[in-house]
Q: What sequence folds into this?
């Protein structure tokens, strides 16, 4: 009869009441009168408790007061359907627009501004490959994708008035649309993108993250802890959607990117993981030697494979014009550039690996490290670091990804244009799971990644670069943010949960700690009156980017004037990775640029010591608050990137997005925040509703038990 704990709670209270001396005394005197009362109370409590819980054959979504959907599926398929419904309620307009782009038909739906997007998607073969991937799913998982699409369509049918008219053209959605969107996001936004291809560089990814795993030996509670902290743009396909999915065999909490039907960062009662963008090279640009209508390869001339598309483009008057697109492909992949007699073809990893959703699903269902690694070993996820912790006390860092087996060259070589006239440069295999940089339970008791190469995940070094091919990952400088990350972990022998949350919000500028001891005396010695006043401000500054920090604006302005690659007299060294670079290479030039920065700041804001939060704002939706945090190169762990707003102010466009702090106690302790809120639909109360906590450097409690969810219930939907 009693199927869950929440039903037992009132019964335990009743038993305590019945055992009280008052009831026992009354029962002895009037048993025939009080017995019906006791029985009716039991039935009332049982029925009442059952009304709070799901009948076995019911699927429902419980939205809490922060707009987080807690999905209870009577079976897995129903859970996927409910998740599709929930995503539409929170992000319907965005989701449909993203699916339209993944079809390569966005220009047809919404006009000229989407033409380049369609060209990219069609050139990369996204829609066609998504159809192939869909057919390649096993029948069970294919039905889950169909169910997610059904949930999307059902919401739109029932609540069409809440969806913008212009995006309804995408309906109905199919299971293959889900895979097309996933494919576009993973392979042709994260692994590579039009901007990266144009620059032929993997050095400036659009995304970043922090990730920590702390072993029991370094935890104040003796329990392993995990910090998930992705940094992504605050718009478009990069938005996170926080959710809980409960169904037979799964009870996982975490976040998915909008439009993706599975949690990409998650935890359950046993374990959890997060991802960071790793220094992974999963694409290469090959220069072809053109001969007539073909290209030279291994001494022979080969013809291109050619496919022609007709892209429809919606005009302002509603009519459609047709734009031809001819896609030529070599043995390497599609040709993405053909200028001045030089053609460049693109090769991308993972195009034959359609199982990432099922891999994430099985990762979320795992109960121990062995089961978790069994899922990881499929290598369906084309890139991203995996940072892991569990209640058994294990922690792990995996440099995950589809890494090509290359015959020669280091990481830097493969970042450039590769000769495409010989099979000696054409990779056809990827490294096995066992080949990838990985560490489990290091002696240090902690692991970190702040988008630095895997070699600096902990100290002393647990993953040594000499043990791997030179193209696996770069051996470049450890960023100031990564140095700050490692410093906080290394200097605290016993880290409490609350301390981990506090460290996560650190806005201290590691760069300022490294350079001000040289800059301030140089400014006083070599500079004029303005430089000396600037030095006074910098000396009094707390070296943080909090809302009330005075001096942070001046320092950040000086950094913008400097070329940091040439600023230091002591370069970064593998032998001293956490204390270099250091020293001013040209003090005179540094002081001159400080004077220029000071003049600019004083002119714009009327003072050199303007508070950080006066200039940098948390402006999102209808919210406008003083910001804290700053850009990566300042060495701030709490990352925010800003764009100009108005009147010399700036607003966030990228950075701390979803945050989860987890301690694997029993029960699991967890706090989280989705910085911009858990919805984008017009009229939703959850657009920007968590920014107040963001401004206060706070996380909110994660409600996972049904009792807690019902205590903070905003809305309920039954299926």
A:
């Amino acid at each position: 009869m009693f199927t869950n704990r929440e039903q037992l709670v009132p019964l335990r209270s009743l038993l305590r009441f019945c055992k009280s001396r008052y009831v026992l005394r009354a029962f002895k005197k009037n048993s025939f009168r009080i017995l019906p009362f006791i029985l009716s109370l039991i039935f009332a409590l049982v029925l009442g408790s059952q009304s709070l819980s799901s009948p076995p054959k019911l699927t429902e979504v419980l939205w809490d007061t922060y707009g987080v959907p807690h999905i209870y599926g009577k079976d897995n398929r129903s859970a996927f359907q409910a998740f599709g419904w929930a995503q539409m309620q929170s992000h319907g307009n965005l989701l449909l627009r993203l699916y339209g782009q993944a079809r390569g038909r966005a220009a047809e739906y919404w006009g000229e501004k989407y033409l380049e997007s369609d060209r990219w998607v069609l050139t990369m073969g996204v829609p066609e490959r998504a159809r192939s991937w869909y057919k390649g799913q096993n029948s069970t998982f294919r039905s889950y994708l169909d169910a997610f699409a059904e949930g999307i369509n059902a919401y739109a049918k029932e609540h069409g008035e809440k969806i913008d008219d212009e995006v309804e053209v995408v309906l109905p959605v199919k299971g293959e649309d889900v895979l097309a969107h996933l494919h576009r996001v993973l392979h042709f936004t994260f692994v590579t993108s039009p901007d990266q291809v144009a620059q032929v560089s993997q050095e400036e990814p659009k995304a970043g993250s922090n990730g920590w795993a702390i072993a029991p030996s370094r935890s104040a509670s003796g329990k392993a802890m995990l910090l998930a902290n992705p940094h992504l743009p605050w718009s478009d396909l990069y938005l996170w959607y926080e959710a809980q999915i409960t169904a037979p065999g799964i009870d996982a909490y975490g976040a998915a990117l909008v439009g993706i039907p599975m949690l990409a960062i998650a935890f359950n009662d046993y374990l959890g993981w997060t991802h960071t963008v790793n220094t992974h090279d999963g694409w290469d640009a090959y220069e072809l030697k053109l001969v007539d209508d073909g290209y030279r390869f291994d001494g022979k001339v080969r013809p291109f494979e050619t496919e022609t598309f007709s892209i429809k483009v919606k005009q302002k008057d509603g009519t459609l014009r047709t734009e031809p697109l001819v896609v030529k492909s070599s043995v390497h992949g599609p040709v993405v550039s053909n200028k001045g007699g030089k053609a460049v073809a693109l090769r991308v990893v993972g195009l034959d690996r359609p199982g990432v959703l099922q891999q994430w699903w099985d990762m979320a269902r795992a109960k121990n490290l062995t089961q978790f690694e069994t899922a990881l070993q499929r290598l369906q996820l084309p890139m991203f670091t995996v940072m892991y912790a569990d209640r058994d006390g294990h922690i792990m860092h995996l440099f995950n990804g589809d890494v090509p087996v290359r015959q020669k060259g280091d990481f830097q070589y493969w970042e450039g244009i590769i000769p495409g006239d010989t099979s000696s440069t054409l990779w056809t295999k990827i490294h096995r799971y066992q080949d990838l940089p990985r560490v489990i339970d290091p002696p240090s008791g902690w692991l970190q990644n702040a988008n630095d190469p895997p070699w600096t995940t902990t100290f002393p070094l647990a993953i040594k670069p000499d043990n791997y091919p030179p193209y696996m990952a770069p051996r470049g400088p450890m960023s100031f943010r990564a140095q700050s990350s490692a410093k906080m972990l290394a200097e605290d022998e016993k880290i409490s949960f609350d301390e981990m949350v506090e460290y996560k919000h650190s806005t201290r500028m590691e760069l300022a700690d490294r350079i001000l001891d040289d800059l301030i005396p140089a400014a006083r010695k070599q500079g004029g009156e303005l430089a000396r006043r600037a030095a006074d401000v910098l000396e009094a500054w707390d070296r943080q980017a909090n809302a009330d920090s005075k001096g942070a604006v001046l320092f950040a302005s000086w950094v913008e004037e400097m070329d940091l690659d040439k600023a230091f007299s002591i370069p970064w060294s593998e032998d001293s990775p956490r204390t270099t670079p250091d020293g001013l290479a040209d003090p005179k030039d540094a002081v001159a640029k400080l004077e220029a920065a000071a003049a600019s700041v004083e002119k714009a804001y009327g003072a050199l010591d303007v508070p950080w939060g006066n200039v940098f704002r948390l402006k999102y939706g209808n919210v406008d608050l003083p910001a804290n945090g700053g850009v990566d190169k300042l060495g701030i762990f709490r990352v925010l990137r800003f764009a100009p707003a108005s009147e010399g102010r700036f607003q966030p466009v990228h950075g701390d997005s979803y945050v989860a702090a987890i301690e694997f106690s029993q029960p699991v302790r967890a706090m989280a925040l989705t910085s911009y809120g858990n919805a984008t639909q017009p009229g939703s109360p959850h657009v920007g509703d968590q920014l107040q906590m963001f401004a206060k450097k706070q996380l909110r409690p994660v409600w996972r038990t049904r009792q807690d969810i019902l205590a903070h219930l905003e809305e309920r939907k039954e299926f």
About this structure: Residues 672 and 699 are 5 Å apart (CA to CA). The first strand starts at residue 60 and ends at 64. The chain has 21 helices and 30 strands.
